[in-house]
């Protein structure tokens, strides 16, 4: 399939996400006074202690109404999960930038827009501050898909071509459909990252600069530590993004990997990689 067609499917899938049922919907105030929309998934079982916190960053053209499968799975696992809405890189800006090639150039412009990431950093800070008003989470992680995965890498401390530096400070990171070297990251951009990181892609997960093997270069660039790379056979880009036509097999594999990985870390150790049908796993 041509890249322009892939991107059109990507954008149409995001439009479908706008009507998904989400958790509690609230808004948090950013440091610049703007409001950041949040979909909050509270843990199924609550106790006297503050639940661990999982913040989730959507891709270009998405919203807080997407990635519901991930928010719900983390909540069932005992996490307070919050999907963050990034208005400056959501569906509105993308839909307003349709050109002769459809969404292709609009997406490329968004994922290389330094100011859009600065707004994303403020959204993340606002979500974390809002969550900490209730209680201070003992363990906090950042997850993201596509442009959200780029955001994850930037927050984790990856070198980049956009002269960006985020506050970071999360205990661990998860990147769904990570970016390899190209328009945002130089070669070996990931070497400075010290925190644990899980990366997940699929054999049909194409991007602006290559196929899934290009995405795996982010893992190759990480130093030693608790790092996992999972490649899900047959999984496409939007399978991880939670499109309306969901792929239950991919979502189950993704949530199993995410919860297994993060649960072990917050208990103080790095779990051995699980054996899952249709998933190739590398660790270091």
Could you give me the name of the CATH homologous superfamily? Alpha/Beta hydrolase fold, catalytic domain
Describe the biggest sheet?
A: 9 strands, mixed
- The number of distinct helices, counting runs of at least 4 residues, comes to 10
Helical/strand content category: alpha/beta
**Would you tell me the overall average pLDDT?**
88
Q: What is the CA-atom radius of gyration, in angstroms?
A: 17 Å
Total DSSP E strands: 9
- Strand-residue proportion: 15-25%
What gross morphology would you assign? globular
> So, CATH architecture?
3-Layer(aba) Sandwich
CATH topology: Rossmann fold
Distance between the termini: 34 Å
Considering the chains and any ligands shown, give keywords for the structure:
single chain, 284 residues, alpha/beta, Rossmann fold, 9-stranded mixed beta sheet, 20% strand, globular, disordered N terminus
């Amino acid at each position: 399939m041509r890249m322009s067609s892939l991107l059109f499917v990507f954008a149409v899938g995001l439009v479908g996400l706008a009507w998904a049922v989400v958790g509690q919907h609230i808004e948090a105030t950013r440091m610049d006074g703007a409001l950041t929309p949040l979909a909050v998934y509270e843990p199924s079982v609550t106790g006297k202690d503050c639940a661990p916190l999982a913040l989730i960053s959507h891709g270009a053209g998405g919203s807080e109404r997407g990635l519901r499968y991930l928010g719900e799975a983390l909540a069932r696992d005992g996490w307070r999960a919050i999907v963050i809405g990034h208005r400056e890189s959501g569906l509105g800006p993308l839909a307003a930038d349709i050109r002769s090639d459809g969404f292709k150039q609009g997406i490329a412009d968004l994922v290389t827009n330094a100011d859009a990431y600065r707004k994303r950093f403020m959204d993340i800070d606002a979500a974390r501050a809002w969550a900490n008003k209730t209680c201070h989470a003992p363990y906090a992680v950042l997850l993201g898909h596509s442009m959200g995965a780029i955001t994850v890498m930037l927050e984790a401390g990856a070198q980049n071509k956009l002269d960006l530096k985020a506050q970071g400070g999360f205990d661990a990171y998860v990147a769904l459909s990570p970016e390899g070297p190209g328009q945002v990251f130089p070669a070996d951009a990931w070497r400075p990252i010290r925190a644990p990181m899980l990366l997940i892609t699929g054999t049909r997960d194409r991007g602006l600069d290559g196929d899934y093997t290009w995405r795996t270069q982010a893992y190759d660039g990480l130093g030693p530590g608790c790092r996992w790379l999972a490649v899900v056979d047959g999984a496409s880009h939007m399978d991880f993004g939670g499109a309306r036509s969901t792929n239950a097999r991919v979502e189950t594999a993704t949530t199993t990997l995410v919860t297994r990985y993060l649960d072990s870390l917050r208990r103080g150790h790095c779990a051995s990689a699980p054996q899952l049908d249709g998933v190739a796993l590398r660790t270091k």
